[in-house]
Design brief:
Elements: H1 3-11, H2 18-27, H3 59-87, H4 95-121, H5 125-146, H6 150-167, H7 170-175
Length: 186
């Protein structure tokens, strides 16, 4: 066995019950460079298992979260308007399809509110979700703008483009790196 084979063998548990502790140690989120010996009396806190104070929230994170929350509110308003039109007896081709569309509007609005909240808190998964939402807004905003509703299209395109640019800022990436943490093993 080579040197790398020996280091692998010593890291992987040999008894079946050791896999529980091994799995928990492997699934813990990365928290920076390892400390050889933690200082006496210190404890690791927070959802991500990182020690020390939480990083300061960049203004860009608050701005992206606000843009996403405003988009969620706009979707909720569109769902309310759509629901009122359905209740008032507006002609529809398929009632089932109309109810499904209303459900999609409400679900997407709730999803965007969750993305906004957890992005503001700094969770990692929200960056991808916010990026997808902004790309969807762009796919609606550009045709709206080129279809003759320039002001309405710009209201959609400008905040979405700003949010996309800000999502790739180094400070946003560094802040939005919190994981949900692993549940207790036993």
């Amino acid at each position: 066995m080579g040197v790398s084979d020996m280091s692998h063998c010593s890291a992987v548990p040999t008894r079946p019950f050791d896999y529980v502790g091994y799995g928990a140690s492997v699934s813990r989120p990365h928290s920076g460079p390892p400390e050889p010996f933690p200082p006496t009396g210190s404890s690791r806190t927070g959802d991500s298992g990182a020690a020390g104070p939480a990083p300061r929230r960049p203004r860009a994170v608050a701005l992206i979260a606000a843009i996403t929350a405003v988009e969620a509110t706009a979707l909720l308003a569109a769902a309310a308007w759509y629901g009122i039109e359905l209740l008032s007896g507006a002609p529809v081709t398929s009632l089932g399809g109309a109810v499904f569309t209303l459900g999609l509007l409400l679900a997407f609005s709730a999803w965007l509110y969750a993305v906004s909240l957890y992005l503001f808190r700094g969770y990692r998964w929200t960056r991808a979700a916010a990026l997808v939402a902004q790309i969807l807004v762009l796919t609606i905003g550009f045709p709206t703008m080129t279809g003759g509703y320039v002001a309405l299209g710009l209201v959609m395109v400008i905040p979405a483009a700003a949010a996309i640019v800000l999502l790739f800022d180094k400070r946003v990436i560094a802040f939005a790196s919190k994981t949900g943490g692993a549940p207790p093993v036993l």
